TrEMBL record:
It comes from the Bacteria. It is found in: Bacterial flagellum; Secreted. This is Flagellar hook-associated protein FlgL. Residues 5-142 form the Flagellin N-terminal domain. Keywords: Bacterial flagellum, Cell projection, Cilium, Flagellum, Secreted. PANTHER family: FLAGELLAR HOOK-ASSOCIATED PROTEIN 3 (PTHR42792:SF1), FLAGELLIN (PTHR42792). Residues 321-404 form the Flagellin C-terminal domain. The keyword Transcription does not apply. Residues 200-285 form the Flagellar hook-associated protein 1 D2-like domain. Pfam families: Flagellin_C, Flagellin_N, flgK_1st_1. Belongs to the bacterial flagellin family. It comes from Rhodanobacter humi.
Length: 405
C-alpha cells in the first residue's frame, strides 16, 4: 500500500498550478501580441518558415525602394531631355534663319546672343542633379558638374563612360541614368555617315545641301579600309573631280554639275545649289563626331564673324543643322529607352506589390494568432486554473484534527 504524504500532495498541486499558469500566460501573450509564435520554441518549424518569409519580405521592400529611387532619377532625366530637345528646336530654327541671305549685321549679332544663352541653358540641363544632388549625366563619377563651359565656348566633359545601375531584383539591374559623353559629346557628325562641307575660302556661290548614302553596298566598300577623306574640286564649267586624300589623291569620281543638281560617287549623294567658281572645293569625310555644344559654338562664331558672306554663312548653318538633327536623334532615342526602362520599373514594382501581399498572407497564416480559438482556449485554461486553486485550497484544509473538532 502506497502512502501519500502531505508534502507530496502539496508539491503535485503546486506543480500542476504552475504548469497551468505557464500555459495561461503563453495563451494570454498570443492574444495580446496577436502572434502565435513569439519565441522559436512555440513552433520551431513555423518559426523557421517565418524567418524565411520575413527575409523575403525585407528583400522585396528593399528592391521596391530601389525601384522608387530609379524611377525618380529616370523621370527627372526624361523631363530634362524633353527640355533639352526643345532648346535644340529653337537653335535649329535660328540656323534656318541664318541661311537667309537678307540678315543684317545686327540680326546676326542678336541671333548669336540668343544662341549663347541657349548654349548656357543646355550646359545647365546637362548638369541636372537628382534629389540627392547626384549628377544625372556624369556616369558613376561623383562630380556634380560633369559639363564645364570653357572661356573659348567649348565644353569639357569630366564624368566617365559608365552608367549608374540599380538592383531591382536578384541578378537584375537596370541603368538609372545615361552617361553624358555618349549622349551629348560623341555624336556622329553630318548625316550620321559622312560630312560634306564647302571650303571656307571658296569664291563662288556653291551651297552644300542634303547629303545621304544612296547605295549602302558601294558605301560599305568605300569605307571598308576606314573613314574616307575626299576632296572635290570644280572647274569654271562645273565639272568636278573627287580625289582620295587617304590614298595619294587618287581619283575616285568625276562628273558635271549644274546649279540645283547633285553629285554622286561611291554610294553617296550630295545635293548642291549655286554656282562654284573655278578652283572652288568641298570635302567629304566620314567617322567624325561633334558634341552638341560645339554645334552651337560653331553657329555663334559664324554669326559673329563679319567676314563671312551669305554663302559661307549658309554653308556653316547647313552643316550645323545636320549636327542638331543628329543630336536630336540621339536625345529622342535615349528618351525612348528611358521610357522603356520606366515601364519595366512599373511592371517590376507591380509584381513586388503582388508578391508582398502573397508573402504577408502566408506569414500571417504561419505566425498570427487565431483569435477565436485562442480566446476560447484562454477561457478554458483560466477556468481549469481556478478549479485547481480551489481544489488545492480544500485539500490543504483537510486534517484529522479539524474533523475531531
Amino acid at each position: 500500500m502506497i502512502r501519500l504524504s502531505t508534502s507530496w500532495m502539496y508539491q503535485q498541486s503546486l506543480t500542476t498550478m504552475l504548469d497551468q499558469q505557464g500555459s495561461l500566460a503563453a495563451t494570454q501573450n498570443q492574444v495580446s501580441s496577436g502572434q502565435r509564435i513569439n519565441v522559436a520554441s512555440d513552433d520551431p518549424a513555423g518559426a523557421t518558415q517565418a524567418v524565411s518569409l520575413n527575409h523575403i519580405l525585407a528583400s522585396t521592400a528593399q528592391y521596391s525602394a530601389n525601384i522608387d529611387g530609379a524611377n525618380a532619377r529616370l523621370s527627372t532625366e526624361s523631363n530634362t531631355l524633353s527640355s533639352f530637345n526643345s532648346l535644340l528646336d529653337q537653335a535649329r530654327s535660328m540656323a534656318l534663319q541664318g541661311i537667309n541671305g537678307t540678315l543684317s549685321t545686327a540680326d546676326r549679332q542678336n541671333m548669336a546672343t540668343q544662341l549663347t544663352q541657349i548654349r548656357a541653358q543646355l550646359v545647365q540641363l546637362a548638369n541636372t542633379t537628382d534629389a540627392s544632388g547626384n549628377a544625372l549625366f556624369a556616369g558613376t563619377s561623383t562630380t556634380s558638374t560633369p559639363f564645364v563651359l570653357n572661356s573659348d565656348g567649348s565644353v569639357s566633359y569630366t564624368g566617365n563612360r559608365d552608367n549608374q545601375m540599380t538592383a531591382i531584383g536578384s541578378g537584375l539591374r537596370i541603368p538609372n541614368s545615361d552617361e553624358g559623353a555618349g549622349l551629348f559629346m560623341n555624336i556622329p557628325a553630318g548625316n550620321g555617315s559622312f560630312v560634306a562641307a564647302a571650303t571656307a575660302g571658296n569664291t563662288g556661290s556653291l551651297l552644300v545641301g542634303a547629303t545621304s548614302v544612296t547605295d549602302s553596298s558601294a558605301w560599305k566598300a568605300a569605307t571598308a579600309a576606314g573613314p574616307v577623306n575626299y576632296q572635290i574640286s570644280f572647274d569654271a564649267a562645273g565639272n568636278w573631280t573627287a580625289t582620295d586624300a587617304n590614298h595619294g589623291n587618287a581619283v575616285v569620281g568625276t562628273g558635271s554639275y549644274q546649279d540645283g543638281g547633285s553629285i554622286s560617287f561611291n554610294g553617296m549623294t550630295v545635293a548642291l545649289s549655286g554656282t562654284p567658281a573655278a578652283g572652288d572645293t568641298m570635302s567629304v569625310k566620314s567617322g567624325q563626331t561633334q558634341d552638341v555644344f560645339g554645334t552651337l559654338t560653331n553657329m555663334i562664331n559664324a554669326l559673329n564673324d563679319g567676314s563671312q558672306n551669305n554663302t559661307q554663312l549658309g554653308n556653316t548653318m547647313s552643316r550645323q543643322i545636320e549636327s542638331i538633327d543628329r543630336a536630336q536623334d540621339q536625345v529622342s532615342s535615349t528618351q525612348t529607352d528611358v521610357g522603356g526602362r520606366l515601364n519595366r520599373l512599373t511592371q517590376q514594382k507591380s509584381t513586388y506589390s503582388d508578391l508582398t501581399l502573397t508573402y504577408q498572407t502566408t506569414l500571417s497564416g504561419v505566425q498570427d494568432t487565431d483569435m477565436a480559438s485562442a480566446i476560447s482556449k484562454l477561457m478554458l485554461q483560466s477556468t481549469a486554473l481556478q478549479a485547481s486553486q480551489q481544489t488545492f485550497a480544500k485539500v490543504q484544509g483537510m486534517s484529522l484534527f479539524n474533523y475531531l473538532k
